[in-house]
């Protein structure tokens, strides 16, 4: 049994299909789940915006979740908040910020009421084996609760509400980054792990190229940093890098 993570697909449906197929998780849009059918997939948010077919990625991910609900899991990214905010509050600040961050009309037009309910209920964190999985390399999660269950319940409550500012605050908090970088980053990562559990944080959101000061086309694998306490997996597909599917050990 293997556990795979992927993040920040940003509309690149063909790439997502390709990496899942190559790993034996997918065959012609049907979930296969690896050689024994018991592999797990965690998608760490940011399915949409910036790329060619965000709504296609939403459709594929939701279909895989329906086919294999015990094996396919999706976490909330800041672009899911953005998609939701634009849909619910188009005349608020979300309108401008959504466009600036690569929002696409086709993705909004394809979004059904059922998708909106799904977005509002996405969990933001999970501990899987020894890994704490989340979207953003931020400490904002600490402001929403003292356990994974607390944080997920708080965010679910905030996104269930109809207050545009509340939604925007969640989006903004999930957009912050680089909190595990540098000397203080090690302590920060340790504090996150002590609070939420796990031996290691696995995140997307901040592209590896910006963490190692390299162009994204030179990135070919995940980055382990902060004394081995943190793993970044966003290869920067929207920036010309690879969509990384990473098998956790
Ligand atoms: Mn993000």
Secondary-structure-based class equals alpha/beta
The neighbouring-strand order within the major sheet is: 6-7-8-10-9
Task: Please give the radius of gyration in angstroms.
Answer: 17 Å
Would you state the CATH class?
Answer: Alpha Beta
CATH topology: Purple Acid Phosphatase, chain A, domain 2
- Measured as a percent range, the helix fraction is 40-55%
Small molecules (ligands, ions, cofactors) in the structure:
manganese (II) ion
**Residue ranges: pLDDT <50 for 5 or more in a row?**
none
Mean pLDDT: 97
What's the number of helices? 10
Beta-strand residue fraction:
5-15%
Characterize the largest beta sheet: strand count, sense, and whether it forms a barrel. Answer: 5 strands, mixed
CATH architecture: 4-Layer Sandwich
What key phrases describe this protein's structure?
alpha/beta, 5-stranded mixed β-sheet, 4-stranded mixed β-sheet, 10 helices, 11 strands, binds manganese (II) ion
